[in-house]
């Protein structure tokens, strides 16, 4: 009797777990840039968001709004003009020079 009740309870839990709306759950691995994109699409004027910077002697790359960018690449109406270890400089005809900095919690020390 106990096994029948237990098995029935397990089946009920499995069936009802599929009824939960998974779209309401937040993906913890999703980059924070998704919220910035949503704000721009909703009519806000959010600045681009830097996720990471790779700046070495031969290569400078930055992940801006979830996309890998190099010097000279366009980000919306702006152009990437410089990539430094802690900041990215953008140039726009409308808003001029914009410097985006990594937050302290995003920065990691360089190990040699």
List SSEs in N-to-C order.
HHEEEEEEE
What proportion of the residues form beta strands (DSSP E)?
A: 25-35%
What's the CATH C level of the domain at 46-103?
Answer: Mainly Beta
Radius of gyration, Cα only, in angstroms? 22 Å
CATH architecture of the domain at 46-103: Roll
Globally, the shape reads elongated
Average predicted local confidence, pLDDT: 76
Largest sheet properties: 4 strands, antiparallel
By DSSP, the count of extended strands is: 7
Share in helix = 10-25%
Strand order across the largest sheet: 4-5-6-7
Structural class: alpha+beta
Contiguous runs where pLDDT drops below 50 for at least 5 residues: none
Classify the oligomer. single chain
Number of helices: 2
The name CATH uses for the topology of the domain at 46-103 is: SH3 type barrels
- Termini separation comes to 65 Å
How would you describe this protein?
A hairpin with a 3-residue loop joins β6 (87-92) and β7. The longest helix is centred in the first third of the chain and has 16 residues, at 2-17. This protein has 112 residues and is of the alpha+beta class. The chain has 2 helices and 7 strands, in the order ααβββββββ. Strands 4-5-6-7 form a 4-stranded antiparallel β-sheet, with no helix packed on it. Strands 1-2-3 form a 3-stranded antiparallel β-sheet, with no helix packed on it. The protein has helices spanning 2-17, 33-41; strands at residues 50-55, 60-64, 67-69, 74-75, 78-83, 87-92, 96-101. It is elongated, with a radius of gyration of 22 Å. The chain has a domain at 46-103: SH3 type barrels (Roll), CATH 2.30.30.
